[in-house]
Design a protein that fits this description.
single chain; mainly beta; four-stranded antiparallel sheet; 1 helix
Amino acid sequence: MATLSPCPCGSKHLYKSVEVSAGGGHAPNYLPGLGSWLSSEKFFLVLCKDCGLTRFYARSHAMEKLGESKKWIRL
């Protein structure tokens, strides 16, 4: 996971969520092609207590699949 602290606002009051589903089914799939056939991938949220900035971080398992996924285009 990338360096989380400090927040761009300068705060070090950051909170990390438990794993959150990236969607699928009736919800949008925010990490398409990176989960398994039966379940969507998961990610972590990091929230700054002072400014409210929320950042999404994919798990390393999902990032390893990026090169072989046809749903993602390298920029």
